[in-house]
From TrEMBL:
Keywords: ATP-binding, Cytoplasm, Nucleotide-binding, Transferase, tRNA processing. Catalyzes the transfer of a dimethylallyl group onto the adenine at position 37. It catalyses: adenosine(37) in tRNA + dimethylallyl diphosphate = N(6)-dimethylallyladenosine(37) in tRNA + diphosphate. GO terms for molecular function: ATP binding; tRNA dimethylallyltransferase activity. This is tRNA dimethylallyltransferase. One of its GO terms (biological process) is tRNA modification. It holds the Pfam family IPPT. The keyword Nucleotide-binding applies. SUPFAM superfamilies: P-loop containing nucleoside triphosphate hydrolases. It comes from Lentithecium fluviatile CBS 122367. It is an enzyme of class 2 (transferase).
Length: 470
């Protein structure tokens, strides 16, 4: 039997509404652990309903960290800041002889914490040296200015982004400004290191593997059942006081603008949390005496439907991240046997399908016993634990193939993205509208031309008639 892992970590991932927090509590209770939040929105103080925070009763006495630790006026933590804070908490938990259990739906936080990453390590090193840690003024310039600068220093990244993707353009330029290297070059270096790591897995100096021994538990639910569960959650959020949190955020935004003379940035931070922007119009309408009960009911229904749709889309993005990025990172680090999917589709079987197998696998992991084959736990595990593709496109600039749709203006960077776009309903509708417009313009031109020709014929006929009479 292998030795028990030194400084182990249990990480729990999955889409919103799958029960990740409940499983984290059970693992922590069983193995003397403490829980670390890995959800960006739950970093904010208050707002337990909009951010879907675990309640005190649900914690069952287990200490939780990085919950409600930043103010509403603060920006969401960067990946680097989260990793730094989380590593500090992990060390504190271990100093008490306890097991750290990471849980959260912001999977780029989770992945950056779990895996050594050449890019994040390089940026962290620059900050530790105290070099260029301040804000670069050019990053606050208009997007077109930032993009032009990026074209000068990193044409590969500049060519990848749509001119309107400000945050991605900013990030690519920031990487160059902080490291002195184009981001595309760093991604290439990462890819080569991964290839070397796969070719020589026994190498102990690889910096693309895990930071520490990790058991990764993925709580999953089938799409149909999960979406039904998420749709029903919105009514419960309203009953618990969602609108009071919308009021609190609106009041804060108004006081912030009065205090600073500038509006809050509604495109980032807590302001993009699902349930706030979707209910703003309805919340404002409640104080409008001219609106009828019927009008309010329609607005309420519309707000609920928008929130439901946004929540489903968020869950879809979370699952996609796990399938494409997290799974490939695990495979590249040689950790295929350490990631387990637990099928939580049927809540009536939660204990047998999720809790018991998770406890059993955790016990084997912590004691150094051989782990079972992850794909054999369930039919869902066999299907979902196979990556949709064997690489993470974000790390392969050599495969980027930028195409721009002349009709829609949409930018695609892979053949698959392009295929999905041209088959999309929005693209087909736009093409249809364009054809109708072209047909209408063509008909008008022909009609105009025909009118002119008819006039000429009429004139010639009149002239001939006049000549005959003469």
């Amino acid at each position: 039997m292998a030795a028990a892992p030194v400084k182990p970590l249990v990480a729990i991932v999955g889409a919103t509404g799958t029960g990740k927090s409940d499983l984290a509590v059970e693992i922590a209770r069983k193995y003397n652990g403490e829980v670390i939040n890995g959800d960006a929105m739950q970093l904010y103080e208050g707002l337990p309903i909009i951010t879907n925070k675990i309640t005190k009763d649900e914690m069952k006495g287990v200490p939780h960290h990085l919950l409600g630790c930043i103010g509403l006026d603060e920006e969401t933590w960067t990946v680097g800041k989260f990793v730094s804070k989380a590593l500090g908490v992990i060390n504190e938990i271990r100093s008490r002889g306890k097991l750290p259990v990471l849980v959260g739906g912001t999977h780029y936080y989770t992945q950056s914490l779990l895996f050594q990453d050449a890019l994040s390590e390089e940026l962290q090193l620059e900050n530790e040296k105290g070099q260029q840690t301040g804000r670069f003024p050019i990053l606050d310039e208009p997007t077109a200015v930032i993009l032009e600068k990026l074209k000068e220093v990193d044409t590969v990244m500049a060519d990848r982004w749509h001119p309107n993707e400000r945050r991605k353009i900013q990030r690519s330029l920031e990487i160059y400004l902080k490291t002195g290297k184009p981001a595309s070059q760093i991604y290439d270096e990462q890819r080569l290191k991964r290839e070397v790591s796969l070719a020589a897995p026994e190498c102990e100096t690889s910096d693309v593997g895990l930071r520490f021994p990790t058991l990764l538990l993925w709580v999953h639910a089938s799409k149909d059942l999960l979406y039904t569960r998420l749709d029903g959650r919105i009514d419960k959020m309203i009953q618990k006081g969602l609108l009071s949190e919308v009021q609190r955020l609106s009041d804060f935004a108004a006081s912030y603008e009065k205090r600073t003379g500038a509006p809050v940035d509604l495109t980032r931070g807590i302001w993009v949390s699902i349930g706030y922007k979707e209910f703003l119009d309805y919340h404002a309408a409640l104080s409008n005496p001219s609106l009828s009960e019927s009008d309010l009911a329609k607005m309420r229904t519309a707000a609920i439907e928008k929130t439901q749709a946004a929540t489903r889309q968020y869950a879809k993005r979370q699952i996609r991240w796990i399938q494409i990025k997290l799974l490939n990172a695990s495979l590249a680090a040689g950790q295929r046997s350490n990631i387990f999917l637990l099928d939580g589709s049927d809540l009536s079987k939660w204990e047998g399908d999720v809790i018991r197998p998770a406890i059993q696998v955790t016990e084997q992991f912590l004691s150094g016993k051989p782990l079972p084959n992850p794909t054999q736990l369930s039919g869902a595990a066999q299907e979902m634990l196979t990556p949709k593709r064997d690489f993470d496109l974000a790390q392969r600039p050599d495969l980027w193939q930028k195409k721009v749709c002349d009709t829609c203006g949409t930018v695609a960077v892979t053949e698959n993205d392009w295929y999905l776009h041209i088959k999309s309903r929005a693209h087909r509708r736009a093409v249809g509208n364009k054809k109708k417009q072209e047909h209408s313009e063509s008909s008008a031109t022909k009609k105009g031309k025909g009118t002119a020709e008819d006039s000429i014929d009429l004139f010639e006929s009149s002239l001939n008639n006049f000549s005959e009479k003469v």
